[in-house]
Amino acid sequence: MKISAPKGTHDILPGESGKWIWLENILRQAAGRYGFSEIRFPAFEHTELFLRGIGDTTDVVQKEMYTFQDKGGRSITLRPEGTASTVRAFVEHGLHTTPMPFKCYYIAPNFRYENPQKGRLRQHHQFGVECFGAKEPSADAEIIALGNDVMANTGLQNVSLRINSVGCPSCRPGYNQKLIKFLENCRPKLCQDCNNRLSRNPMRILDCKNENCRAEIKDAPVGTDSLCDDCSTHMEQLKIYLEYMGISFDVDPSIVRGLDYYTKTVFEFINDGITLCGGGRYDDLVRALGGPVTPGLGFGCGLERLLMMLKRQNVTDKPWEGCDIYIAALGVAADRHSMRLCNQLRSHGFSAERDICGRGLKAQMKHADKIGARYTFVLGEHELTTEKIELKDMATGQIHAGNLEISFLEGILGNRGRNHSDGG
User: What is 323-413's CATH number?
Assistant: First the structure.
């Protein structure tokens, strides 16, 4: 019986992993420039965390969580998103006592039981940032600026930013009543999911992807018309900060996000109708999970979606990560010397390969070509005696003649070794 990977999962093979490393380095460097440090948390949590944190009326909790009982009878859930886990760690370790703002980022897999879709698998990977202790709209602008930098640094084109405000516990109930009154007249033509949301979470209907539903709700009341003074001022200040930074945006009342914890600002970066990055403010979440009243905000980017769009746009600007040099050895003495040279080159940050499968010279050269070696040279008795070699550039065919010394090889390879590139 042939065993394959479970539906909705994906093997990232060696030929593909270089793209992931390149992207992850861009994300880590961007986060570092904004003062964010990495946090790592478990792949599973107590189910209660997500029931309380995400909200039991959301699609994530209702339909998508991988929940099971462990051998101790405890209800455990594979992590469906990173914010709740970050807040749990923030509260559990008393990080509210550290200097504010507390800023962290993560690159981690999430797990959701849903039909695989464009760039979103049942196990998918997310880059997320979270910031605690900052209530000013300038903090929202900085978080959005970080997301904007990520999009720009990857080389993606035609990415648009859309922002909205979902209000707060003071003004949202009034808007919900207006929305429910409007939607009641549309009920017969709404999909089953939207009918289920009508009494529990009406704002989620605004985010429905069903074309019939979207047509029915196009004239729905706009949430920004019902904001309290505090939320309205926050939104206006955010727009001013974004304009000062030269970040283009559109206000989109349909941006509500799919999780219950959001307050005030929500936003998404969108390309070709696909959300690449989304987030917002969650000022009540820390308190809801047992901590003190602490404002918070952040965003998440799906790595699979980013890579998918990079491929669509043919963005291939990633550092060299193949074999810098291949040494084809002939004879026992040359084989031993090639081992020493490879070891020296590797210690200097270059990728060096030699034969370990007992191939002849012709087969070694074919293998060097298959693995994409940048340079090759033959090391035999003559080369050992004369201490002279001919280094071949495999792309151009150019020959570099020189001494059998590590300094000569380094001089040709220059700064193109892995430790000298941004790709790591």
Answer: 3.40.50.800
